[in-house]
Specification:
heterodimer, A: alpha/beta, abc type-2 transporter like fold, 14 helices, 5 strands, elongated, B: alpha/beta, 2 domains
Chain lengths: 372, 370
């Protein structure tokens, strides 16, 4: 017991002396919290549109006017020709070009169906699809208003609308997903990254040899490394929760106790992973690459940035081995949906199993390598 | 010159011996692009929903039918009360519940505005907003169908949409330039600065400094192999994106490569700067991650649209080279831009690398004097 305490003290001394590590532990969460939520916003708020009006009639003008009223669109004014339109799109000045053909008004009056052509800059596929939807909606509304007011008033028009109620996130705010997501990223980075690099460094400069010849047992070493980083990770998480509440006003809806238990187990998985990686890699570069590689895969599959529902089946299978996706699920359940311990028990058991497996693997490979 | 070749050879041996890192570096772009290309889709199929049909008439049944036949939704339950909906959210994990009001058919026929209530599970906002778009389009399709039935083909406006540059709305188009940027940064800036820091950390740097080799050669000899490696990687990414994801290269291939080389110099200059101010590998890694990698992920516009960000962040984004590189590479690859279209992006990148290089050389000098 005394040995472990000594090791923990040593580790904290090292962390304290390493000014860079200290500043990273403090600055990284702050920076991530202050920048990430403002940049990570997929919502398409404005699209730039330009108009080519070959008709120049009152109808075409009133359609264009209709667009300028909508908050979704920034009008780029009239474009003389298609060539000019293409040039503007080439230089990203407009996202959409709406072209009204000549004889547009005449055809409408004569009961025809003239065609409005929309050209979209589809490099950003999401923006193109959603923007096209907005435009169609405006056109439909315009047409409905026209038919109600004038000639076709006798014909009954069906009029449907959707009225949304948003559960768990009433204002459809992206921050409510992104901010808890940052917490997950932070805990992961502290757990796996810092631990792995720390141990490999001992290997590289040879201090691990000194420990091996001292009477420190291997589980002493393991605990002496894990406990300090576990404490750091939990501290980061709690600071993160406070920042989340006081900066973004997102408070944990469910049981905080359950959340902390889940986090501590998740940290054990990540610490074990970091430990394992540090033992199989020869230098810090290798360790960093392995952690980074896994980290990217974990994040992309965890459903933080994109829905997991749309993934192909093989990706879903891979996700069963992804601790981050289980933890993300727990966070969503507890922070947003107000879940308690009973709701997350399954995920917690999965994470615990992972923690046991990875830590045993780390301990075994440590004994293979170092104790022969 | 001979000295430079010797250093180059030494570095290549280093790279070759560390097979794990080499493998990871070459496999990373592959995995990234496959993950981005296949798993990141904003399309959702068979999302579970419940429909509380309070009216139970012809129209409401047709509406439910058009939801389930769209392929986007799967109606898993037809509850009879609000409480049952609550249960469905908890037990059946539905993503949304739709409540069709009473007298649905009658109200539609008598020309009233009918509103259908939708309850969304927004704990995953990505899912919720995609599903909402699907619902809007199903509803408006249903509405149009009813109207044409009732009015026997009244006049209307038809809309044709042409998706320019990316006809199939493939999201890979957005990611490929971003992945190239990230790989360039990882290999050219991160790896070279870390290996330089390692020499300092393990004191082999001192050994090299007492040899007659000039310091410039040591540094340049360190960086060049990684530039080669990142160029190889870039070509691999381009190959995969063209062959597997059918992404076009509309512009001149040489111009594209020139662009990549220029950005590689920018990344390499940053790597030099980092290694000149960091003492350990951890320092080098953290500075590159925080100073270049993270801002590139967040502020380059490849993951998150720049137009949505607050103005301060848009200005901040312009300071980092990645934004300009991604703009230029998209123009060349997808829009077929020529040199005259993108020369200003190239110019910005060249200016940025010159400044970074000047600054890092002055840092290295300062250190030597100490």
């Amino acid at each position: 017991m005394r040995v472990i305490l000594m090791l923990i003290k040593k580790e904290f001394l090292q962390v304290k002396r390493n000014k860079l590590l200290m500043s990273i532990l403090i600055v990284a969460p702050l920076v991530q919290f202050l920048i990430f939520p403002f940049t990570a916003d997929y919502e398409i708020k404005v699209v730039q549109i330009g108009f080519i009006d070959f008709d120049q009639s009152t109808t075409s003008k009133s359609i264009i006017e209709k667009f300028t009223y909508s908050p979704y669109f920034i009008s780029h004014g009239f474009i003389e020709s298609r060539e000019q339109g293409e040039l503007l799109m080439m230089h990203d000045k407009v996202d959409f070009i709406i072209e009204i053909p000549s004889q547009f008004e005449k055809e409408i009056v004569n009961g025809g169906t003239p065609q409005i052509a929309i050209t979209a800059n589809a490099i950003n596929s999401v923006k193109a699809a959603i923007g096209a939807g907005y435009i169609k909606n405006v056109l439909r509304q315009y047409f409905e208003e026209q038919t109600e007011g004038k000639t076709f008033s006798k014909i009954q028009m069906a009029d449907l609308e959707l009225y949304h109620i948003y559960w768990y996130n009433e204002r459809m705010n992206y921050k409510n997903l992104i901010v808890p997501g940052i917490l997950v990223i932070l805990v992961t980075l502290i757990g796996a990254y810092v631990t792995a690099l720390n141990i490999v460094r001992e290997k590289e400069i040879g201090t691990i040899e000194q420990m091996n010849v001292s009477p420190i047992k291997k589980w002493h070493f393991l605990l002496g490394k894990m406990i300090p980083f576990w404490i750091l990770g939990m501290a980061e998480f709690i600071i993160g929760l406070l920042l989340m509440k006081f900066i973004f006003g997102i408070s944990v809806q469910g049981s905080i106790g359950a959340l902390l238990i889940a986090t501590s187990i998740y940290l054990l998985v990540m610490l074990g992973l970091g430990f394992f990686i540090s033992l199989i890699s020869r230098n810090q570069l290798q360790a960093m690459f392995i952690v980074f590689f896994l980290f990217v895969v974990f994040v992309l599959l965890s459903g933080l940035f994109t829905p997991t529902e749309g993934m192909p089946q093989w990706a879903k299978y891979i996700n069963y081995t992804n601790p981050m996706s289980f933890f993300m699920n727990i966070i969503k359940l507890v922070v947003m949906k107000g879940g308690g311990f009973a709701d997350i028990i399954k995920d917690v058991i999965t994470l615990s199993t992972m923690a046991v497996i990875i830590n045993i693997a780390a301990l075994l490979s440590y004994s293979d390598k170092k104790r022969g | 010159m001979l000295e430079l070749i010797a250093i180059l050879r030494k570095e290549l041996i280093h790279i070759y011996r560390d097979k794990v890192s080499l493998f990871l570096v070459l496999a990373m772009p592959l995995v990234l692009i496959i993950l981005f290309g296949f798993t990141i889709s904003t399309e959702i199929k068979n999302a579970k929903i419940s429909v509380y049909d309070q009216s139970q008439d012809m129209f409401s049944k047709r509406l439910i039918e058009s939801f389930s036949s769209s392929g986007y939704f799967k109606v898993v339950n037809l509850p009879h009360s609000i409480e049952e909906i609550h249960d469905d959210f908890k037990n059946k994990h539905i993503k949304a519940a739709i409540i069709i009001p009473q007298n649905f058919e009658k109200s539609l026929e008598t020309d009233q505005k009918v509103s259908i209530q939708v309850i969304n599970d927004v704990s995953d906002i990505n899912v919720a907003s995609v599903l909402n778009n699907y619902m809007e389009s199903i509803i408006s399709g249903f509405e149009e169908l009813l109207n044409t039935e009732q009015s026997n083909g009244s006049p209307g406006i038809s809309v044709s949409i042409q998706m320019l540059y990316n006809r199939e709305l493939n999201s890979v188009y957005m990611f490929v330039p971003g992945i190239i940027t990230l790989i360039m940064i990882i290999i050219t800036a991160l790896m070279s600065s870390i290996t330089l820091a390692r020499e300092t950390e393990t004191n082999t740097m001192r050994m090299m400094l007492i040899t007659p080799v000039k310091k410039v050669y040591i540094v340049v000899g360190k960086v060049i192999p990684y530039m080669g490696l990142s160029l190889l990687s870039t070509i691999m990414i381009l190959g995969i994106s063209v062959w597997i994801f059918k992404m076009p290269i509309e512009g001149n291939l040489l111009l594209l490569l020139l662009l990549c080389v220029v950005f590689m110099f920018t990344a390499a200059s940053f790597g030099l700067l980092v290694s000149s101010i960091s003492k350990t590998q951890l320092d080098a890694m953290m500075i590159t991650m925080m100073g270049l990698f993270l801002p590139t992920v967040l502020l380059s516009g490849f993951l998150f649209p720049l137009d949505n960000m607050p103005y301060v962040f848009q200005i901040l984004a312009s300071i980092f080279p990645a934004k300009w590189f991604i703009l230029a590479i998209k123009d060349v690859m997808i829009k077929g831009a020529t040199f005259t279209d993108i020369w200003h992006y190239l110019f910005i990148l060249v200016v940025m690398s010159t400044l970074l290089l000047r600054f890092s050389i002055s840092q290295i000098d300062k250190r030597r004097k100490r």
